[in-house]
Amino acid sequence: MTQQHSRPQWWRDAVIYQIYPRSFMDANGDGIGDLAGITARLDYLEALGVDALWLSPFYRSPQADAGYDVADYRDIDPLFGTLADFDRLLAGAHERGIRMIVDLVPNHSSSAHVWFQEALAAPPGSRARARYFFRDGQGEQGELPPNNWQSIFGGPAWTRVDDGQWYLHMFDSSQPDFDWRNPEIGDEFEQVLRFWLERGVDGFRVDVAHGMIKQAGLPDWDGEQVMVEGGNRGPMWDQDEVHDIYRRWHRVLAEYGGDRMMVAEAWLRPERVVRYIRPDEMQQAFNFDYLIARWDAAALREVIDRSLAVTAQVGATTTWVMSNHDGVRHASRLGLSNPGARPQKIGIDDEQPDEALGLRRARAIIMLTLALPGSAYLYQGEELGLPDHTTMPDHYRQDPGFFRPGGEDGGRDGCRVPLPWQAEGPAFGFNTSGERWLPQPDHYARYAVDCQLGRPETTLTLYQRLLEVRRDQRLGMGELAWEPNPREDVLMLTNGDLRVVLNLGERPIALPAGRPLVQSHPEALANSMLAGNAAVWLTTR
Ligand code: GLC
Ligand code: CA
Predict the structure, then answer these.
(1) Does residue 168 lie within any of the structural domains?
(2) Catalytic site residue 75?
(3) Strand duo 72-76 + 498-503: pairing
(4) pTM, whole model, 2 decimals?
(5) Is the CB of 68 under 6 A from ligand 1?
(6) In degrees rounded to 5, what are phi and psi of residue 123?
(7) One domain, residues 496 and 526
(8) In this structure, what CATH number is given to the domain that contains residue 361?
C-alpha cells in the first residue's frame, strides 16, 4: 500500500467508488458484469484516483433483488465468478493502493438460503423457524397478516406459507427478515465477517443497517414507514438494541489490523444516523440528506452545515454522496424542470430530463461535493456524466420493486444499466458479445470511456483533476469556511487555499479573487465571469 492509503483512519477523507458488479464490465460475455471484468479495469480506477471501492453484492443468490437476496454469505455467485476471482481482484486493488469494501446484507437472507429452506420444512414453533419471523395470522382462520407492516417494495410485509403461518419480509417476499434477537444470527454473522476479514477486505457496507431489530411484539404502525425527508420511521426501524450489534462488530474488526471499517446504510434523520457512528460502532454512514438536497444554495448550505455539525458531535466525518444504485442518477435528476425532484425511476411516459442541463449541473455539483471536508462516495458511471436510461420499456425491468403491488411507479433499473466503455462496438464495450442484462440507450455512446479518456474538456478528466487536487491539498481533512454569498443562488466557500464558487442560478456572476484551477465545463468562465449552472475552483495562494 502507498503511504496515502496506509494512513490511520483512512476512511475519514476517502473517496470511495461504488461498483455495481452486474453493470461494470463483463469479461465472459454473458451479459452480466463479473469480478474478472472489474479486475480488468483496475487500471482505469487507479487512473481515476479513487481511494477505495465498494462492491455491491456478488454472493450466491437467486438474484431476485440483484444480489441483495443472499443464499450463501461465504461464496461468490457463479454469475460473477469464483472465490479465486475475488482474491485476484482484491490483490490487484491492494497492489494499486486501492482499498476494497464489500456489501453485507444482514437484515434478510434469500428465501433460497439453507436456513429459510429448513424453516419452511420445519413445523411452527421450531428452532429453524425462530431464525426468522414466523407468526400465526390474525382473523378467524389466521387468514390476515400478523400486523399491518408494509414492504418497502409495496404490499404487505408478510407472506403466508403452506401450513398457514406467515413470515416477515420488509422487502421482497424472497427476502425473509432474520430475527436478530435470536443469538444464533449474531454468531453466524460474526463468522461471516471473519470470513471476509480473513480474505483481506477493508470493510463492509452494511445494508439496511437500521432495520435489523424490530420492536418486541411487532406492534401495528399507522404512520408512514418510508419518508423521503426524515428517513424511515416506525417499530421496524432504528431500535436501540441494533447498536449492540455494531458494538460487537466494531470489536471484531478491531481484532484485525489495517483499519477495517463499516459504513451504514440507514435512511434516518441525521441526528439518528450519527448514533451508528459513535466511536465504538461503525466508522461511516451514508449522508442521504446530501443526496436528497434540493438544487438550491440555502438548502445545500443548510444540509452541509448540519452534516458537519452532527458528525462532529461523535468525532466522525461525513460521507458526501449524490447517486447510488437505488435512485435516479443526479445527472438525470438535475435536468428535470424541478431539479429538486427525487423520483426513483424516470420512465418513458414521464417528463424527460434536459440532458445538457443535467450534465452541466452534475459537473458543477461534484465541484462542491469534492471540495468538502470528509469522505465522498461516487457511483460508477457518474465520472462519465452518465444519465439514467429514462426511456427503458417496462418489459426490460427487473427490479422486484416494480412487480410488487403498488410498485409500478418504482423500478431502479434506469440507474443500473451497463457502463459504456467504447463508443463503437458491441454493448458499448461492456463486453465483446453484445449481450447485456439491461439495454443501454443509444446516447450512451457519447459518454463512453474511450471518447473521454485523455480529453481535457470531458467529465472524466474533470473528475480526475478534482480528485488529484483534492488529494494534493488534503481537502478531505480540511476545514470549510463559508464566504458571504454574492447572490442568493450562489455558494462560495474556502477550504484551505481553495476557493469554490458554485452558481446554481442562470445568470453569470463576477469571479472573486483567485487563480482558476478547475472549471466545471469549458464555457464556465468568460471575461472574469462564472456562467450559470457552473462552478470553479480557484487558488488563493
Ligand atoms: C438496500 C439496497 C437495495 C436493496 C435493499 C434490500 O436498500 O441498497 O438495493 O434492494 O437494501 O436489500
Ligand atoms: Ca459475465
Answers:
(1) no
(2) no
(3) unpaired
(4) 0.97
(5) yes
(6) -80, 160
(7) yes
(8) 3.20.20.80
